[in-house]
Design brief:
151 residues; mainly alpha; two-stranded antiparallel ribbon; 2 strands; 71% helix
Length: 151
């Protein structure tokens, strides 16, 4: 909705409920697994994480790390939901960007360029960790800047 519409008193569209705890579990899994892949030099583990991220972006019901939260951790009371009315699209976009960067890193690893591959993988770790710890989503920022450019 355009700023002019809001300024004129137009109602905001209703946003779906969005559980930020599921997002944080997703980020924590990405950070932990990619760090393990780096420390143990396991490109196939990094490839698995990139695949999970890509599938979760394309079909949110397939988001394995978020399913871990919803199907195991939440029902057992290990974590509590943190639900907000929020558009999930920026977060899916950010995850898609992360999947693409990690996927390129995996391709570099498999092509024999470990410095490039692990640098790209660690970039994903840093950006996911920044979001997890500080609440700043770089991919969401890009999403909103692109939306702004389109207007």
């Amino acid at each position: 909705m355009a700023y002019q519409d809001l300024a004129a008193g137009a109602a905001r569209p209703a946003l779906p409920p969005f559980d930020r705890t599921a997002l944080r579990v997703n980020q924590a899994c990405i950070v932990a697994l990619v760090l393990i892949a780096f420390l143990l030099d396991l490109p196939l583990l990094a490839a698995f994480v990139a695949l999970v991220m890509a599938l979760g972006t394309a079909t949110p019901k397939l988001a394995l790390f978020q399913r871990l939260y919803r199907d195991i951790l939440l029902p057992r009371g290990v974590l509590k939901p943190d639900v907000h009315q929020e558009d999930p699209a920026p977060h899916r976009f950010a995850q898609g960007m992360g999947a693409a960067v990690l996927g390129l890193g995996v391709l570099a690893l498999l092509a024999g360029a470990p410095q490039v591959g692990w640098a790209l993988a660690l970039l994903v770790v840093v950006l996911a960790a920044v979001n997890l710890v500080f609440g700043f989503c770089a991919g969401c920022f890009v999403y909103f800047q692109l939306a702004r450019l389109r207007r």
